[in-house]
Amino acid sequence: MAGTATRPLFARQPIFDSDLRIVGYELLFRGMVGNEAVFEDGSEASAQVLINALTEVDLIEVVDGKRAFVNFTLDMLSAVPEFAKKHLVIELLEDIPVTPHLIDKLRELKAKGFTLALDDYGTRRYPRELLNLIDVVKVDLLHVSPSRLPLVVESLESFNVQLLAEKVETLADYDRCRVLGFEMYQGYFFSYPQVISGRPRGSDRHTILELISTLYREDVQVKDVVAVINRDPAIAVKLLRLVNSALYRRQRAIQSIQQAITMLGLNRLRSWVTLLLLDKSSDRGNALTELTLFHAFFCQTVARETSPPMEDAAFTVGLLSCLDAFFDEPMEDLLKNLPLDNLLQQALLANKGRLGAWLRLARFMQRYPADRVSDNALEKLGLTRVKLTSMQQSTLQEVFEATNILELSQELIA
After folding, report:
1. Which residues share a beta bridge with 345?
2. Angle at CA of residue 247, ends 241 and 248, nearest 5°
3. Looking at the predicted structure, is the pLDDT value of residue 389 above 90?
4. Among the CATH numbers 3.50.50.60, 1.10.3210.10, 3.40.50.10320, 2.60.300.12, which is that of 204-414?
5. Spatial contact of 80 and 108, defined as CB atoms under 8 Å apart
6. Which intervals hold domain HDOD (predicted)?
7. Structural fold of domain 7-198
């Protein structure tokens, strides 16, 4: 199956220290064409950059183990992924309104260990209360004249901040900033932004809204979250890729969505899912979703009847069974970045093992009645024809109920 064309995920521009060693990268939004940042919604653009960096590629690899500077709007501050705090620098945009709510939020993030940066300093005045919380101040040389630059630096002497000169375009700019004590540098004089491309995997925003609603219930349990994620394979893939990234050090392979959620934790999951909502990828049709749900529910039902400890793994196999059709990419390529154990890998790639046999049966039962299944196959599966018919009917009902939930949520949102 031919793969869909890649498109820009984001761009990265290196940040250097005074010895011209790379100490971090700023991750920048890029549109569909060329190396340009063209967007209408700052929150959406920043969310898309962060989601792509966390789930479409490995963030730690992209920044070579260094820090990632990402623009944050006020809306984005409610969705900061805590699991990335060692490598993520929260860069506050110059037009962010300074309010008591913002100060409280920044204090909270600072207490959690995040690094805070202030963008485009010199174009407006900031209260001391804010500057006392900032770690890095970025001075845009295109907006601050050479004659004003010493005054800008002097205004920050009483604060415990590092100075970063951005939009450095000439050797004279660099020399001037070094003399004034700048510690970091970024701009075309050193390097143009490099576009990182890939094939983003969209998620149904209605499912994401339902997931957020579930996550913020007072009595939420992991099983409730699993039930929602299991209805959207794209969200499941993003979650598994996140858990498989270098941000985590797994002790064992992941066998189910439930294991991935347990490992991540509900608090971290809340931040991540909120980012997904801000990333407005296009919604998909229901045909493939219904097919995938049938595979997942049917495999789970067979496992419940014949091998209950394998229910979660069986559902996961069914949930991921149509990935190649969803994303128009070979299954083998898609599974390379998912932390699945060998049993799941073999079932999805070669229909091998008990999970593979259940998946083959699910695909068959999605199209044909139980009387088309051979006696030999029934004996190997440990099922009767009557039981198989009942399982087929119950699975169809589960798919119907699940898709109705999605349609109802769409009506409520519309």
Report:
1. none
2. 80
3. yes
4. 1.10.3210.10
5. no
6. 201-397
7. TIM Barrel (3.20.20)
